Amino acid sequence: MCAVAATTTTMTPIFSSPKIASLLCKSSSLNSSTSSSSPRSLSTPMNLHVSASSSPSPSSVSHVDTVLKRKRPARIHVPHSMPSIGFGILETPEVMEEEGEGYSVYCKRGRRRISAMEDRFSVSVGIQGDSRQAFFGVFDGHGGAKVAEIAAKRLSENVIDQVWRRTESEVEEAIKDGYLMTDREVSEEGGGACCVTALIRNGNLAVSNVGDCRAVLSRNGRAEALTSDHRAGREDERNRIEKSGGYVDCCGGGWRVQGTLAVSRAMGDEHLKQWVISEPESRVMKIEDDCRFLILASDGLWDKVTNQEAVDMVEAVCGVEIKKNRPINPKLIMSACKQLVTLSTSRGSLDDTTVMIIQLN
């Protein structure tokens, strides 16, 4: 906003899809061409009136020569895309997606966005060579995509490193340390990012979040929120901020920390770090037979779609495979992701939206 000790953990990190549409989930490439055209001279004045009764003085001749010989400065080459630091245009695709065994994720740029899409995701599967151990994350940037970009690359590594150093009873503390370590790594980038993550290990599910990205579990078709949004207007969060010397004010129709930020926890946001903390809230639970799938999504979905509506749509698309307790075709999961994003957009969402669905049983 620290170097991490090397770990012997074996994992297969996935940050973006190998498909062309997802290549820029890593880091956007810019047109770096800097060629410029040759300087052009000023056009010759249309009329130069010289008195016939007298010869021009040396000073006037010098003045005319100067006008005729003066050159224009070289043109400045302006590339079609400029780097975005919280504003401007950055070359990124309209959508990014990834499919894998038991999961799919789909990101779509919001219609109001004039800058680069700020949502990111990350997946690490096959941790320590075990396909049943994995780490998933959804990241929603604000004030630019840089913090979300770095956090998507580094948080999984930091959390996994910390978790595998600890005992089962220390998982929540290990996840918190991974979050705080990542926050320090993005402290100088400007902007911030909300995120929600899920760690699957030894038959347990550990879900954590900062900000308003959310995790929703389907228990035999019944929606259960596993995270609580860190909104500035949440009573316990507002009390925490006020006790630390800050304030929460109503601006633009919503509660905001110091009158600016709508979330009370996030990665980055160094200028508000005294009040906007990066310590996550976590929940660890056993994956039971009735735990069908998990939805991780940014607020672009949850602002327009209820938890139960989201679960119902996934059940409608993937219901047959889910009820038979067999692996779901990733293309079906992807279809459910896309339909959820479409539903949110049809209800007026203008925000970037990311939906990730993970099969648990």
How would you characterize the overall build of this protein?
This protein has 361 residues and is an alpha+beta fold. It folds into two domains: 12-23 and 83-228 and 267-359, PPM-type phosphatase domain (Phosphatase 2c, domain 1), CATH 3.60.40; 231-264, no CATH class. It is 25% helix and 24% strand. It has seven helices and 15 strands. It has helices spanning 58-69, 146-163, 171-185, 235-243, 299-302, 307-323, 330-346; strands at residues 12-14, 95-100, 103-108, 119-125, 134-142, 192-201, 204-210, 214-219, 222-225, 248-251, 254-257, 267-268, 281-286, 291-297, 353-359. The strands form three sheets. Strands 1, 4, 5, 6, 7, 12 and 13 form a seven-stranded antiparallel β-sheet that branches. It has a six-stranded antiparallel β-sheet with strand order 2-3-15-14-8-9. A hairpin with an 8-residue loop joins strand 4 (119-125) and strand 5. Helix 6 packs antiparallel against helix 7. The longest helix has 18 residues, at 146-163. Mean pLDDT is 80; it is low at 1-56, 60-64 and 66-90.
